[in-house]
Amino acid sequence: MAKRNPPSLALFIVMMMAAGAGGGEIGMNWGRKTSHRMLTSMVADILLQNGIRNLKIFSHEVQAMEAFSGTGISLTVTLPTAGITLTSLNSPGYSRYWLNDHARVFRNMNINVTNVHIGTDEMRHDNPTYYTTCVMALGYLQYGIKMNGHHYLSATVVHYVDMLNPLTLPSQAEFKEIYRDSVAQLLKAINGTRSRFAVSIIPFQLIIDYDLDVEFGFMDNTSNFTITDANTGLIYTNAFQFIYDSYLAAITKLGATPEIEIEVSKIGWPTDGHPLATLSNAERFYKGILPHIKSNKGTPLKPGASIDAYILNIADENMQNIQDGGPYQRHWGIYKSNGESKFKIDLSGEGRDIYPTVARGIVSMPKRWCVFNGDKSNLTRVKEQFDFVCQKADCTSLSPGGSCGNLNFEQNISYAFNNYFQMRAQYNKNGSSSSCDFNGLGTVVTGDPSVGICEFMVEIL
In what helix (H) or strand (E) does residue 369 lie, and over which residues does it extend? Predict the structure, then answer.
């Protein structure tokens, strides 16, 4: 592939300043890897009540989409490997079929699908073949968009910090060599289109991966911890701007033009499963980042930029895969599964000290819990049941530093038993109470066994 000579960073800054206009938009992600979830109509209601007009939904099934009909909410749908193979999308014929069978159908149902994101999290684990396939699929999809009159639709691929070389300074940021040609191809494909360069920015991840001062994760700048880029003289006081400008410098080196905008497809702070993943830290993070998004302050390398960002996530995902990440990967939610907000957050971006509007119409299961009956006559049996439960249900809050990380032996077992019990809707399909049997070790109680900040949940219907 012939290499293009990219514009200098200084010239890029000037051109980007001239391009910046309008306020940044705040959207939300709705990951659906949960045993229980709010109805789609409830999610649509939450968004409308809180003034959110942009949603990225990890599904494109009609049942998950129809509640957004007539709401005016702009939807981004995803094309992961599950449900549709990217290799089958790699043909003009199939891309036209997919657009007609989905985008046009949704449009006819008054469902406002405006964006398609190709691929999922596989790029986080050095999978250049998968990424190349995504870029090829993007090319065919964009061809179908152009040739079939889907002028309202854009398509792109989401990028992750893991695709960059280890970060040192933004000006030195580059994509790993295994990705460079394909990223350059993508930049060429989206140049001159409505599509944007989508990135994931998780300051929390940068803090723990690089063992940085946690204060660098927030935008209220209460500490003296800063990073100065010796090559540009730019000073970074927070991780968000540091990561954003690293992406910006990396795509500039691959020939990105000033017309290409960066969209933050995922941004968030987890609330459990790690010592730094707390409700207070999440509240502080959003109180700084959301007003910054709405202010058009941009970043040191792109001052005055309008940055659109999608919050990760509406609710926790108790079935999210954590094998390649930490326990906190299941705890990005703003809301609990019952529609109650976890902490104060002003989704308008005005920085007010308020709780978001809660979901309406939620119905919880009966107030009963499954707990350990205290029989320790055979600890091997107890351990076997605990291990079995935590393979099936979510025990990540029991992790060191988690909200339930300080429970005693009996409470640990009870917490695990109850999570399995609730995940199975309290009783199994034939109506028996065997979902709280655990080889004779479980019992159902009607008194809340929660301990301090450790909540023993009752799930929703």
Answer: strand 369-372
The H or E element spanning position 37 is none
How far apart are the C-alpha atoms of 264 and 243, rounded to whole Å? 11
Would you state the structure tokens that stand for residue 246, as one six-digit string? 């690293």
State how far the Cα of 461 lies from the Cα of 455, in Å rounded to an integer: 18
Contact 130, 120 (CB under 8 A): no
How far apart, in whole angstroms, are the C-alpha atoms of residue 248 and residue 137?
Answer: 24
* DSSP summary character for residue 1: -
- For strands 26-30 and 54-57, give the pairing: parallel
User: Cis omega before residue 428 (within 30°)?
Assistant: no
Q: Per the structure block, which two tokens stand in for 455?
A: 């909540």
Mean pLDDT by 10 residues, the chain (461 residues): 39 39 82 90 94 90 87 88 53 76 85 88 74 87 85 92 95 97 95 92 96 94 87 96 98 93 96 97 97 94 95 93 86 92 96 92 92 97 96 95 96 97 78 77 96 94 82
Terminal Cα distance for the chain, rounded? 55
pLDDT of 59? 75
Q: Give the torsion through C-alpha atoms of 77, 314, 395, 401, to 10 deg.
A: 120
SS3 334: coil
> Six-digit token pair at 369?
């819990």
Closest alpha carbon to 49 in 358, 361, 352:
358
319 closest CA partner among 31, 34, 21: 34
Residues 239, 292: Cα–Cα separation, whole Å: 13
Strands, E assignment, 21-112: 26-30, 54-57, 74-79
pLDDT of res. 294:
94
Query: How many C-beta neighbours within 10 Å does residue 187 have?
Result: 19
Distance CA 310, CA 317 (A): 17
Residue 266 phi, psi dihedral angles, 5° rounding:
-140, 130
Range(s) for CATH 3.20.20.80 in the chain?
26-335
Question: Is the CB of residue 132 less than 8 Å from the CB of residue 184?
Answer: no
Structure-token pair, residue 134: 């995504």
Contact between 54 and 96 (Cβ < 8 Å): no
What was the pLDDT predicted at 5?
A: 40
Q: Across the chain, how many H-helices and E-strands are there?
A: 13, 12
Distance CA 27, CA 48 (A): 11
26-335 maps to CATH 3.10.350.10:
no
Alpha-carbon distance of 280 to 285, in angstroms, equals 9
How far is residue 121 from each of residues 81, 200, 324, measured CA to CA in Å?
10, 10, 10
Check: CB of residue 380 under 8 Å from CB of residue 83. Answer: no
Q: How many CB atoms lie within 10 A of CB 87?
A: 12
